[in-house]
What does this fold into?
Amino acid sequence: MRARPVRTALLAVAALGLLPFAATPATADGRPETGGRQHIAIHEGTDPSGPLLAAAYLRCFPTGGSHPTPEASCLKLALANGDYARVPQAHRACPRIYQPVTVVAHGTWHGRTTAYKHTYPNQCTANAESGDIFNLTPWRD
It folds into this structure.
C-alpha cells in the first residue's frame, strides 16, 4: 500500500510543474540546467540567407552566454514557456520604414527542442515584439 503515497507525491510534483526540473541535464560545472539554451541570429532581408546582422547565444537558468541582457531575456522566455511568439511585447512606437530583418532562434527549453523564424518589417519592430530579446546590438530603440 506504499505505492499510493508515492503516486500522490509524483502527481503533486507534476501538478506544480516541477517534474521537468527533476530530469534536467547537468551543465559543464555540474549544476543542473533547468532552463534552456538558445542561439539567436538576425539576418538582413526576408529570409535567413541574407547577411548576418547580429547573433548571440543565450543560456537560461543558470543565465549566461553572449546575449547582452541574459537575465531579462530569460525571464521573458520563462513567462512564455520558451515560445518566442508568446513573449510579452515592449510597447513602443517604431518607424514605418521597411528594412526587413529575419530572426532565427533555435535551441532547447526544459529539454525540448525549440525553433523560431520570423520576418519583421524592421529591427525596431523585432526588438519591440520580442520584448527586446532580439535587441542584440548596443543601441537601444
